[in-house]
Structures are given as C-alpha cells and as structure tokens.
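#structure-requests
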Amino acid sequence: GSDSTTVSIRERAVTAAYLGPTTATFDTPTTLSASLVDEFGQPVVGRTVTFTVNGGTIGTPSTGPGGIATLNYTPNVPAGSYTIGVSFADDGMYTAATASGSITINQKATSVTYTGATTGLPNHTVTLSAVLRDATGTALVGKSITFTLGSQSVTAITDPTGVATATLQLAQKNGTYALTATYTPTGTDSTLYVGSVASATFTIGKAK
C-alpha cells in the first residue's frame, strides 16, 4: 500500500537589532553593528544586512558566526541626530526583518599651534604663523586663522599643510603683549568642527 500527504515548509521568522554606538564624531572612524536571530534564538549566519543613515545606504556587510554584522563607518555629515536603519531582505528561508536606532554625530575637535615670531621691533614687520589640525592629526586646509597681537590683528588662510602665515607691521609701543591665533569655524564648518585657539606672549623691544 501507499499514501501521501502535503507538507508545508515555512520560513523562519527573524528579529533584527541595532547594536552599534549611539554617538560618534564627524570624520572619525567608528564601527556599527547589528544582529539577526531567528524565532528559535539561533543566529542567522551569512546573510546580508543593509545599514542606512537617514535612509541613505552606507554599507551591506554579512552576518558572522554569531549572527552579527559589523560595518566600519566614518561619518561625513554635520553634527546632529540621525536614524540608523538595519534591514534584512526575505530570502525564502528567513523572513525579512528591520530595526532602527539613533546616533548623535558630534563636531570634531581642532587644535592650533602657534609657530611664528614672538619678538619684534616697533614699526618693523614680523611673520606670524600657526598650524591647524583636527583631533586625529590631519591638517585642515583653506581655514581662516586670526592672529591678534595686542590691539592689532591679521587673518590668514591655511595652506595644504595646515599652516597659516601672515605678516604684520608692529604699530604698538615697546612692551609685552598677548598673542593669540584663533580658528573660528563659520558656515558649514561650524557644524563640523570645534574652534580652537593658541596663546603666546609677544615682546616688542626698542629699536637700536
């Protein structure tokens, strides 16, 4: 004798979760991660996970042995709060799954190092210079540095090595003066970088 029946094979239900950081810094590498787990608590391995930031795809890594997918991510967006999306598409064996999280992108710190003259004579011209770098040591190009020496000031733009250089004719009496080199982000830069300042003491001596 014989008999037959119909067996229905269904997909396993999947749950996705965002596991990555909730804060990051502009132009600074970080790592995002997410997990896929099926309805029986088993990791879903070797499946593609799509990561998005405010709806824009930033990477499509695969899950590893623990059902974890990781993605190296360097934020290139202004400071603010963003939605991280995680999604897995239905593949016939596992159901589709989505999850979301949020991440706050912070401005990147900067540092100014003064490298110019610290002495000069009245009515003489001196060279003021400074180096501008970000928190990871990268030179910042095309940024405005304002040099303030006592009551005088002059502005210069950083070159490809992050160096800003300006000349200033000293128009103050003999004495000791505070000198600052200041980077103040403006426009779009104000959402990307934190300003910084370097201080020094400048001495104006008597002409011989």
